Amino acid sequence: MASGARKLVRSSFMASVRALLALTFLLSGGAATAAAAMVRNGGSPSIYGGGGEEGAAVIGRGGRSLLQAAAAAAAATTQSAVFSLDSYGAHGDGERDDTAALARAWSAACASAAPAVVLVPASRSYLLRQVTLSGPCESTIKLMVKGTLVASPDMSNWNESNRRYWIVVRGVDGLAVGGGGTIDGNGEGWWENSCKINRALPCKGAPTALSFHTCDNLSVNGLKMVNSQQIHMSVEDCTGVELAHLFLLLISAGDDCVSIEDGTHGLHVTRLVCGPGHGISIGSLGDDNSRAEVSDIFIDTVHLYGTTNGARIKTWQGGSGYAKDIVFQNMVMNSVKNPIIIDQNYCDSAKKCETQEGSAVEISNVVFKNIAGTTISKSAITLNCSKNYPCYDISLQDINLEMVDDNGATGSTCQNAKWRKSGTVVPQPCTSTN
User: Fold this and answer.
1) Considering its fold, how many domains does the chain have in total?
2) C-alpha to C-alpha distance for 245 and 373, rounded to whole angstroms
3) How far is CA 185 from CA 84, 167, 176, 231, 423, in A?
4) Do 233 and 296 belong together in one domain?
5) What are phi and psi of 149, to 5 degrees?
6) Which of 223, 253, 283 is the last residue of a domain?
7) d(Cα 254, Cα 83) in Å, to the nearest integer?
């Protein structure tokens, strides 16, 4: 994405195996402990699930519970004009199609000159096919989900040319979404037909349950999201995004717990717990020889359990652009395979990728600070950088990474990396060179 374009952040979160979390700040997915994370300054998280083992996450803020957040949202509802789905012909039985009722309620609310609320009533279930709720709206609008929105189980209801979405909100500024209700992607049929599960099938994308596009000043506060077809929530091309009090019942897909992609600037994520999965990743960036720009990323207070990677930056050979001004700090690793890793030669292919000597996404001013715990790999620190575009200003501070069960000493590998250390760093950086 070119400089000056809308900020785009995609962060993916996956929960641990059969764990119910009570998280107490802004945004997370996770493991069996209390934590949370925060996304601000144009953040655009994507929350991924699909095809694996069960897990859960609860997100809170300021010590309030999900129910307290929903109650606060309900109080605000009484001050606005309310457009209930039931008033627009909805059945609310979870069996008959209520897509048109939601569309009519949204259209009326969006045209209201007074602040408006689209209400999904409590204790009822509303079956939906694909639906897009568009703006701009005449006044501020809230989508209060107190009951359940459930996806149609019939995969044929999805348009083959655009099957990547279920509920889309587009072009609505100042939107608030909450209510304490449930978004149910009804994803079991999609998981069974995933090409990752049944490799004889052709690969076709599954829907994102809830998507927000070009929505500035977006607040999502107090929702339960379960059984997504693939991605729970995606926020794209938006600025001023805050997510809070999200309860995510996930199916681990064995991918990144958090994925920070092209166009991400000024992202703050804190108090995060996750695992299993691939850890916290910036990238992959620069695929298909594209340009990528990522900067001002702050990852703080993280617990990882059994992940493939810990703090990772991954870029494709042949890309261009930069990933800079990045901090990973206050992280605890538990049986993580690659706790600290920069891979400027990333290759997601069944076949070995040949090393190229062309362009690369430049990586600089990266801090790994106060990181401790255990690894299952001898190489606890890996800095695998480009010959033509070496990584530089890589800082390693106060690191202590040991083999799980005291199974020998850890080491590190480096290639084309310019680093410095401060404090005690275990293992010693760059004890071997690739």
Assistant:
1) 2
2) 29
3) 21, 10, 21, 9, 48
4) no
5) -100, 120
6) 253
7) 40
Are both 122 and 212 inside the same structural domain?
A: yes
Which pTM was predicted?
0.71
CA end-to-end distance (rounded Å), the chain? 32
Q: Are strands 54-58 and 241-251 parallel, antiparallel or unpaired?
A: antiparallel
Element (H, E) at 103: helix 99-110
Residue 203 above 90 pLDDT? no
- Please tell me whether residues 115 and 207 are part of one structural domain: yes
Query: Strand order of the sheet with strand 280-285?
Result: 258-260, 280-285, 309-316, 338-346, 379-384, 411-415, 432-433
Q: Which domain holds residue 331?
A: 275-433
Residue appearing with tokens 């690369």: 360
- 285 and 411 housed in the same domain: yes
* Secondary element (H or E) of residue 167: strand 165-170
- Asked if 290 and 425 sit in the same domain, the reply is yes
pLDDT band at 417 (very low <50, low <70, confident <90, very high): very high
91 given a catalytic annotation? no
Report residue 304's pLDDT band, with 50, 70 and 90 as the boundaries: very high
**Cα-flanking dihedrals φ and ψ of residue 296, to 5°?**
55, 60
Q: Where residue 246 sits, what CATH number does that domain have? A: 2.160.20.10
CA distances from 227 to 207, 232, 390 (A): 11, 8, 42
- Does 16 fall in a domain? no
Active-site annotation holder among 213, 232, 265, 278: 278
> CA-to-CA distance for 390 and 357, rounded, in angstroms?
11
Asked if 105 and 225 sit in the same domain, the reply is: yes
